[in-house]
Amino acid sequence: MQSLQQQATGRSGVKEEDAFAIDEVNLYQKLGHQTFVNLSTEFYNRVYADEEPWFRSIFANSTKEEAIQNQYEFFIQRMGGPPLYSQRKGHPALIGRHAPYAITEQAAERWLHHMEAALHNVERIDPDPRNRMLNFFRHTAYFLVAGKEMMNSRRSPANNRKQT
Ligand code: HEM
Q1: How many domains does the chain have?
Q2: By Cβ atoms counted within 10 A, which residue in 12, 91, 116, 147 is the most buried?
Q3: Quick check: is 160 in a domain?
Q4: Domain residue limits at 89
Q5: In percent, how much of the chain has pLDDT > 90?
């Protein structure tokens, strides 16, 4: 059986080495703290104003401010900065933390659409860091889709039925 990483690669079209090219440079040092705050602000401004209610509603249980802080602290920690996210909330455990939400392929594409627009709108994020981040985001989004499907299949009654 394919690992979640392999599924993420197959479904996103992003090879693992490209997804983790964010680790070849210290993007936090290169871009600075405020750039990540600006990126998450740009991103969630778009998400919370999305014209599609099905997508907007996925985020209905969090305030925009919470979501922005969670995201930029995670990005900062993952891209070479201080471990702000884990200091406040513990291990990121992304699959588990996304368990309450409908992480479908359609949701992943919409998430990525807003993230791509946000990346283009933040000063200082030129094409090299932008491409590294986009590859990481695309791969991770499909990793989450695959993780969700795995959890759903474990929970499905057909799989839990006793073989008599
Ligand atoms: C949190 C949805 C992809 C990282 C959340 C939340 C939602 C959500 C609804 C809760 C908002 C909050 O309170 O922070 C989605 C959807 C995705 C997606 C629909 C589409 C595939 C991603 C990706 C990453 C990511 C690709 C990382 C690269 C995070 C982090 C949090 C979060 C770090 C904060 C978790 C917490 O502290 O509870 N996401 N997400 N998400 N997401 Fe995603």
Answers
A1: 1
A2: 12
A3: no
A4: 4-154
A5: 91
pTM equals 0.95
Q: What is the CATH number of the domain that holds 96?
A: 1.10.490.10
User: What confidence tens digit (pLDDT) does each residue in 100-155 have?
Assistant: 999 999 999 999 999 999 999 999 999 999 999 999 999 999 999 999 999 999 88
Answer whether 135's CB lies under 8 Å from 21's CB. yes
pLDDT value at residue 49: 98
- DSSP state, 61? T
Q: Is 36 in the pocket of ligand 1 (CB under 6 A)?
A: no
163 assigned to some structural domain: no
Is 56 a pocket residue for ligand 1 (Cβ < 6 Å)? no
**For ligand 1, what atom is nearest to the CA of residue 62?**
13
Does residue 162 form part of some domain? no
Contacts of 83 (CB under 8 A, 6+ apart): 77
The total number of residues shown for the chain amounts to: 164
